[in-house]
Write a structure and sequence with these properties.
Radius of gyration: 24 Å
Bound molecules: '5'-O-(N-(L-prolyl)-sulfamoyl)adenosine
Shape: globular
Number of helices: 14
Strand content: 25-35%
Number of strands: 23
Number of domains: 2
């Protein structure tokens, strides 16, 4: 993309409505624009990152054997009356009447809708296990929408639902989700710690939230600092192996880590004092096992191998896809702007032309741009007629991990400059070497 032709409404001033750094930087970098309280338009740059995160979530879900689909945002109130949640959900649910006077709602979650699909089409244990998921907009009429996309009213969620014959099978599905979530967050450049939590309006008492530690997080958390040493890495895991998935759950959840909803002072006191931590965290996902809560209420039953008909065991599993943009920026920025992890960066590298209009500099930039594109990479070329200082400031704000700076002086010696946004370190090299290095960095990521 050439910056002169892109739509990137960068703000010079700090927007006064933004209280936390991720909100401020998303507004300043022209990624989002508030449409009304807690509801945002995703401008091209924000949309690009949102899509990248969505793609990673899709890949990891499908790697775990979960099946993608798409359910609507608007749901009929009748299904929610069956589960009893139409009245229970309270004011967070946006209720709508259609022209025929029928009660509808903008889905805050999809347990009812998916249970209805299941009961209409599945009747035998032979079709189990089954996990269906989608990534779709949700609406919760939060009393205090704030912090930009972190606590929106309209937000993008991956929600998955498992259907199993027995509790043991459903717990394997739970563990499998935990493993796939650990992989997903690490690919996004985040450490998200599973912590025992509360079921809230979804239900069930076996649930973990995934928290990214950050001062601006809305949840208070208590944990043994040893949990922060755990990483999933690139270990090969067989998602069908009950033992392997259970071992990962054991490894990542046996140390004390809880949100304030389930915090237990007496248990916490058993953690060696030097390792006791109280902090704040951003909840980027939550997994639930709630047994037969919905299947019993809504008649989602299957015939088991013994011929008896039983309600299925279920769980639901959510990732806050739009919230993740905020969480990544909270975890990765400096006073100049965003620093995108390579896995989600909107463009792989920026090209800064120090002297637009200079024949040689223009030609070198065009050649770099073409070479990167030819390798399947996605560069952002700042081809505007701007001062170098302004171009650098924009690139730093946008946070592309790599920048190639091209100027007449360097070109006389046959070199351009390659700079890491994270470390600030620069290296001079011939243009082909810069292209080669960037290609190597993204091999296996892009
Ligand atoms: C699990 C999937 C559920 O709704 N039902 C389907 C279950 N869980 S949850 O914890 O309530 O939400 C899942 C994740 O969605 C994100 N989230 C939000 N993101 C932005 N703004 C909001 N207002 C908001 N509410 C929830 C969180 O990341 C949460 O973990």
């Amino acid at each position: 993309m050439r910056l002169s032709r892109y739509f990137l409404p960068v703000l010079k001033e700090n927007p006064s409505e933004a209280q936390i750094v991720s909100h401020r930087l998303m507004l300043r970098a022209g990624m989002i624009k508030q449409a009304s309280a807690g509801i945002y338009s995703w401008l091209p740059l924000g949309f690009k990152v949102l899509r990248k995160i969505e793609n990673i979530v899709h890949e990891e879900q499908q790697r775990a054997g979960h099946i993608p689909m798409l359910m609507p945002t608007l749901q009929s109130a009748d299904l929610w009356r069956e589960s009893g949640r139409y009245d229970d959900y309270g004011e967070e649910m946006l209720r709508i009447k259609d022209r025929h006077g029928r009660d509808m709602l903008y889905g805050p979650t999809n347990e009812e809708l998916i249970t209805d699909i299941f009961r209409s089409h599945v009747g035998s244990y032979k079709d189990l296990p089954l996990t269906l998921y989608h990534i779709q907009w949700k609406f919760r009429d939060e009393i205090r929408p704030r912090f930009g996309v972190m606590r929106g009213r309209e937000f993008f969620m991956k929600d998955g639902y498992n259907f199993d014959l027995t509790k043991e099978d459903a717990l394997h599905a739970y563990n499998r989700h935990l493993v796939s979530y650990l992989r997903t967050y690490e690919r996004l450049g985040l450490q998200a710690i599973p912590m025992r939590a509360d079921g809230g309006p979804i239900g069930g008492d076996y649930t973990h939230e995934f928290l990214v530690l950050a001062e601006t997080g809305e949840s208070e958390v208590f944990y043994d600092s040893a949990v922060t040493d755990l990483t999933f890495g690139d270990r090969a895991i067989d998602y069908d192996s009950v033992d392997q998935c259970a071992a990962v759950l054991e490894e990542f959840t046996s140390k004390y880590a809880r949100t304030d909803e389930t915090h237990d002072e007496a248990l916490f006191a058993e953690v060696p004092e030097a390792r006791q931590r109280t902090a704040r965290g951003i909840e980027v996902g939550q997994i639930f096992y709630f047994g037969t809560k919905y299947s019993e209420a809504m008649g989602a039953k299957v015939q088991g191998p013994d011929g008896k008909t039983v309600p299925v065991h279920m769980g639901s599993h959510g990732i806050g896809v739009s919230r993740l943009l905020g969480a990544i920026i909270e975890a990765s920025h400096d006073d100049k702007g965003i620093i995108w992890p390579e896995g989600v960066t909107p463009f792989h590298a920026g090209i800064v032309n120090l002297k637009q209009g200079d024949e040689e500099a223009d030609a070198a930039c065009e050649a770099l741009y073409a070479s990167l594109k030819a390798l399947g990479l996605d560069p952002l070329y700042d081809d505007r007629n701007e001062r170098a200082g302004g171009k650098f400031a924009t690139m730093d704000l946008l946070g592309l991990p790599w920048r190639i700076t091209v100027g007449p002086r360097g070109l006389k010696n046959g070199v351009v400059e390659l700079t890491s946004r994270r470390t600030g370190e620069s290296e001079e090299m011939p243009p082909e070497a810069a292209v080669e290095k960037i290609a190597q960095i993204y091999a296996g990521i892009a």
